[in-house]
Amino acid sequence: GQNIDQPTEMTATEGAIVQINCTYQTSGFNGLFWYQQHAGEAPTFLSYNVLDGLEEKGRFSSFLSRSKGYSYLLLKELQMKDSASYLCAVMDSNYQLIWGAGTKLIIKP
Amino acid sequence: GAVVSQHPSWVICKSGTSVKIECRSLDFQATTMFWYRQFPKQSLMLMATSNEGSKATYEQGVEKDKFLINHASLTLSTLTVTSAHPEDSSFYICSSKLAGDYNEQFFGPGTRLTVL
Predict the structure, then answer these.
(1) Which of A11, B25, B32, B90 has its CA 20 to 30 A from that of B99?
(2) Does B99 have pLDDT greater than 70?
(3) Of the partner residues B42, B45, B107, the one whose CB lies closest to the CB of residue A43
């Protein structure tokens, strides 16, 4: 079966750095996405990785290792507004997105 | 960027009634739209993939006669929840992607359905 695993909840301090991990087992791979979702709102796109390595975009970076079936989202200089759920999703061989359950990130002052 | 809108944002209805949710791509043509459902504290669950001009492809366990999808144009897809029941109360989100190989999906703002 297809499976995406990410921690259910994480807590971090404002101004700090946090890494959210995602491991996956899917039938085929056409890229991995990270989305941010605030409570009661739809997801918003953060990053897309299809090749191994680190993609940096401002305070957010995303890393992918296809051989390990592993990705992480790195958030730097955390702000209170970063409190949200972060969803990892993998596009399989049928170009269908397989979603993780999301990691709820709580930022404390 | 690509913008997707949904209407209504929220709806409350009585059990047994039908509710229609519209999903529109505002600045691009979406040959494919996706309909998701999300229960509280759970991840997105794909319900169906909607292709313009053809029948939608439903995921296993999703009743096609209960969740009617129509994708009549390149900018509009509709989801009708027929004979809604309280267990259908959920957050319904549509998304679409640009034609071609670009894989990013653009999400609508979602519709919160509450069935009394």
Answers:
(1) B90
(2) no
(3) B107
**Ramachandran quadrant class, A102 (left: phi over 0; alpha: psi -120 to 50; beta: rest):** left
CA A5 from chain center: how many Å? 10
CB contact under 8 A, B112 and A40: yes
Q: Which residues are CB-neighbours of B97 under 8 A, at least 6 positions away?
A: B30, B32, B34, B103, B104, B105, B106
Phi and psi of A31, rounded to 5°? 120, 155
From B84, B67, B116, B94, select the one nearest B4 (Cα to Cα). Answer: B94
What is the CA angle A84-A87-A90, rounded to 5? 165
Assign B40 a pLDDT band (cuts: 50, 70, 90). Answer: confident
Residues in A closer than 8 angstroms to B112, CB to CB, are 40
Mutation target for B interface from A3, A44, A85, A97: give the one with most B CBs within 10 A: A97
- pLDDT number for residue B104: 75
Structure tokens at A35: 């989305």
B70 bridge partner residues: B78
Q: What is the pLDDT of residues A12-67, one digit of tens each?
A: 999 999 999 999 999 899 899 999 999 888 899 899 999 999 999 899 999 999 99
Alpha-carbon separation of residue B17 from A108, B85, B112, B116 (angstroms) = 44, 8, 16, 10
